[in-house]
Design goal:
heterodimer; A: 265 residues; mainly alpha; two-stranded antiparallel ribbon; 10 helices; 58% helix; B: 202 residues
């Protein structure tokens, strides 16, 4: 290995010496060695003859003029422009946007994940915590103290137990216990029977069945500006789709551009 | 010829100014292309392509040796042409004989009029040298053509291939060594001094 390296270095120096491309110090060092080493001199002579042979090659004349005409330049320019440029630009911009989007997503990661956290599995935990602190029913549509229906869930449907819960705004903790205890107490039945007659809800909301006249009695103030049935916008999904689209444009455009350029050559 | 003035005129839209540069450098460009490609047709394509490319990229020329800049474009055009030919091999017009040799003058392309190839009379020795050059790898071939055939110094050659001086030096040395070894296969064509030397070595 070392011998081969030394041989190549020696060859490089001999070749450069022939062309007078060695510096003075290196040249003198080599000349000293050449005086003592006949094998090295022979190598130098062989290289010299090869160089002379190569320089004896005739200079080939161009078979024609290569002057350009306006058409040649124009055609080339037009040929390059439309598809190549479009693909290249589209691919480049898509790649830049993709990187920027990743950057923005990274910076705003917490903000983007928040709606998702609320709508996925952690919702149960959130409901539990909220239930302990603010168990107020979401919607009340009867007079306080006379009992009434409680709309639960985002759809505004009634209680899952099928029993209408009384509204107790001041004692939220009892509101949760009520559905469990009520079926066991037959005394409450008359109270339920004494509820006002069912009204005609033709003009009410088709989902919640809320009479417009009573709509002002929505008592839950925890999210005053949010409609009960409003589904939060899932930004993470939207951004993911944008990223996928941009990646497809960037990679697809780039590959197509490279393939077309190769074919064109 | 004031190169810089012609370049400036070209950049201002004067195609004739560029054509003066073309006329001045076309033999050099063709010669280098031919020695790198080893074939007249390919060299012709590469030279034309190089001048068109040079015109289009002239605004990227940042001063220095215009010759080196142009030769870089020529060598790049040669590499492109070589790559293109590797992908789409060209069927030779000269049909191959059973032993793999090509028939020099097939009857269907015989023509009394002198072709550009016919006009260029190469000696057998020159053919042998060119064959040895063709046998080199592209990177070695380019350097030996630039320095030993075209006569460039190491610095200009380094500019042309966009590599350091040390690379030019080592590539050239190895290219010369390989050509030297290759030429031993054509010993009967070599001048006496080479044959004697070869016999001595044996």
């Amino acid at each position: 290995m070392n011998n081969e390296r030394r041989r190549i270095k020696e060859l490089n120096n001999l070749s450069a010496y022939l062309d007078k491309e060695l510096n003075k110090k290196e040249a003198e060092k080599l000349e000293t060695r050449l005086e003592k080493d006949p094998v090295l001199r022979e190598k130098l002579e062989n290289l010299k003859r090869t160089k002379i042979l190569l320089s004896r090659l005739d200079r080939v004349q161009a078979p024609r003029n290569y002057t350009l005409t306006p058409d040649m330049v124009k055609v080339r320019g037009q040929k390059k422009q439309p598809l190549f440029t479009t693909l290249r630009l589209a691919s480049t911009f898509a790649a830049i946007l993709l990187v920027a989007l990743f950057g923005v997503q990274f910076v705003l990661q917490g903000g983007i994940q928040t709606p998702r956290m609320q709508s996925d599995a952690p919702m149960l935990e959130a409901a539990k915590v909220e239930g302990e602190e603010t168990p107020e029913p979401l919607i009340f549509w009867a007079e306080p103290g006379t009992g009434g229906a409680v709309a639960e869930g985002y759809g505004g449907g009634g209680s899952e137990s099928g029993i209408e819960k009384p509204y107790i705004p001041e004692e939220p903790a009892e509101a949760e216990e009520a559905p469990v205890e009520e079926p066991a107490e037959p005394e409450q039945q008359p109270e339920l029977e004494s509820l006002p007659p069912v009204r005609d809800f033709e003009d009410s909301s088709p989902i919640l069945g809320i009479n417009p006249e009573e709509s002002g009695k929505i008592l839950d103030r925890s999210q005053p500006d949010v409609e009960e049935d409003e589904v939060p916008l899932d930004w993470s999904n939207i951004i993911r789709w944008i990223q996928i689209t941009l990646a497809v444009i960037a990679v697809g455009g780039g590959l197509t551009f490279l393939l077309l350029r190769r074919k064109a050559r | 010829m004031d190169e810089q003035l012609l370049i400036q005129d070209t950049l201002e839209g004067n195609l004739n100014a560029f054509n003066q540069l073309v006329l001045h450098y076309q033999n050099m460009a063709y010669n280098v292309a031919y020695r790198i490609m080893g074939e007249h047709g390919a060299a012709d394509d590469a030279a034309q392509e190089a001048f068109i490319s040079a015109y289009e990229k002239l605004d990227q020329y940042r001063g220095g040796s215009f010759k080196a800049w142009l030769l870089r474009i020529v060598t790049n055009a040669c590499y492109d042409e070589l790559r293109r030919r590797q992908r789409k091999p060209v069927t030779p017009l000269k049909p191959e004989l059973d032993d793999g040799e090509t028939l020099e003058n097939p009857y269907w392309i015989e023509d009394d009029a002198p072709s550009p190839e016919d006009e260029y009379q190469e000696s057998e020795l020159q053919k042998a040298i060119q064959k040895c050059i063709n046998a080199l790898d592209d990177k070695f071939r380019t350097v030996i053509v630039l320095v030993d055939v075209e006569g460039l110094d190491y610095e200009t050659a380094s500019e042309v291939i966009s590599r350091p001086l040390g690379t030019v030096k080592s590539r050239l040395a190895r290219a010369r060594e390989r050509v030297q070894e290759c030429l031993q296969g054509f010993w009967e064509l070599l001048p006496d001094i080479f044959r004697l030397n070869d016999e001595d070595n044996q």
